[in-house]
Amino acid sequence: MLGKQLLTDNDKVRHEPLARSQMPATTDFFQASQWAGILTLVCAAITLIGFILKWGIRFRLVGATSFMGVLTAGLFALGLGLFTRTAIPGAVRYSVIYDNGATLAAIAVPNQITESELDATLRQAAGDLFSYGRAGSASAQLLIRARTITHPEPGISQTLYLGEVKRSLASREDNNLEVKIYSQNFAQLTKL
Fold it and tell me: What is the pLDDT of residues 105-140, one digit of tens each?
């Protein structure tokens, strides 16, 4: 299920989207690298004091300082923007239900989605599912289809495709997304 059900005063069921786990932003990595850098300098100062005073753990302090230096460098590298995920306004939560690793993927969206939300969600999925490692030629396109499950009668489930998006596999920044919304299938959603 894509959302948790809450009962309202009228005993109608409404859906609220589940909280999406937040990926740290590049600014978070920069801030963490600053703090790790300060801690590295503190470790280096303690190590220097350990060598001056000939402490028995001075060589262990060298290892701890070296580790902190590597950790600081790694956090700084992540802060440079190795994660490039753009959030499309209006996109709703979706689940990837099929991905062949090449040119075809399918996502599941909630029944209550509107056409404008589906457009934004398809654009979000096109950005999220892009990968240079997908199999296929440079001229191939990734096709992502959005579907939902309807229940026309009790005990019967029916898959209903609501739209699709095609994007290039050659470049991450594809400004020529081909988004198709199946309006006739949205009409079936409103009848249910």
Answer: 999 999 888 999 999 999 999 888 887 777 666 667
pTM: 0.59
Let me know: does 36 contact 71? Beta carbons within 8 Å.
Answer: yes
d(CA 94, CA 118): 10
Q: Are 164 and 180 in contact (CB under 8 A)?
A: yes
β-pairing, 13-17 vs 3-7, is antiparallel
Q: Which residues, at least 6 apart from 28, have a Cβ–Cβ distance to it below 8 Å?
A: none
Who contacts 148 (Cβ-Cβ below 8 Å, separation ≥6)? 108, 109, 110, 111, 113, 159, 160, 162, 189
What are the respective helix, strand and coil percentages of the chain, to the nearest 5? 40, 25, 35
